[in-house]
Amino acid sequence: MTKNNLKSSVGDEAMITVAVVQMPVVLGDKEKNLAKTAELSRRAVNDGAKLLVFPELCNTGYVFNSRQEVINLAEKVPDGNSILFWEALATELQVYMILGVLEVDAGKFYNTAVLIGPDGYIGSYRKLHLFYREKLYFEPGNLGLPIFSLPFGRVGLLLCYDLRFFEAGRILMLQGADIICAPTNWLVLFDRFGFDEHGFAMQHYATMVMANINNIFIACANRVGQERDTTFFGKSLIVSPSGWPIGGLASESGEEILLAKINLMEARIGKSKNEFNDIIRDRRHDVYDEMLGYLGHRYPY
To answer: Is the pLDDT of residue 3 over 60?
Structure first.
C-alpha cells in the first residue's frame, strides 16, 4: 500500500480535533479550579474538540510555600476527588482529557498528568525532570515514559520542563507516539527567559524543535495569571510534525481555548523525508543505543 493510499484508507479514524485549554488557576482552591475545567471543557467540546489538554497542576496551583501545603492539597490517583470529578465530566462529554494533578502515593508526592476518557481513568505520567523549587516537594517520576493507545492514535505525556530534554521526546516517538500532550506552567523567571521579536520564548522553540526532529504533534497548555510572586506567561500552542505552530500562540494573559483539527497519520507516515532519508532508519545504532538506554520500551515499528 502506498503512502497516499494509506492516508486515504485510514485517515478518517486518525482525524481528531485537539483543544489546548489556557486558564488561570487559584492556589489551593480545588473547587473553583475544577469548576473552571468543567466550564472550559464544555466550551471546547461545543467547538468540536475530542482531545483536551489542560495546564500542569491545574487543580491546585503551583507556587507552594511549604511541604504542609503540598500535603493538604495532594490526592491519590485514580481515587482522588479531582480524578472522580473529571471522570464524570469526560463520561458526560464523551471526551479525552489530559490534566495536571498533585499526586500522593505511599507518602511521596508527584507532579502528575492524568489521562481520562469517556470510560474513566486511563493512566498517568509522573514528571521526570523537576524544575527549580519542585525539587523541594516532589519526587522524580518513576513511571517511565508510557504510551497510551486511544481510538484515534497513540498519545505520550510530558510535563513542562520535560520538553527541554531531547531524550524524552525521542523515546516517546520511538515507542510510536503520534502526539505528545504537555501540560505546562511556563513562568516568568529570571531576566534571561524573555520573548523574541516574534513573541516566542525558548520554551516554544524547544517544543517546535522536538516536534520537527521527531515528526510528531505536540500540544502545550500553559497557565495565565499571577500566583504569589510568580507570573505565568500563557502563549500556549499546538505544533505540527513540521515544527511550525498550527494553533497559537495564545495570548500572554488571557483565558483561551486553542483548537486544531489534525490527522495523526501525518506523524506516522512522515518519518520518511525523501527517497533516501528516514529519521528512524537513518539513526546510527552502531554508535548509540537504539532506545537511548530506556528499559521500558515497546517496539511498534
So the answer is: no
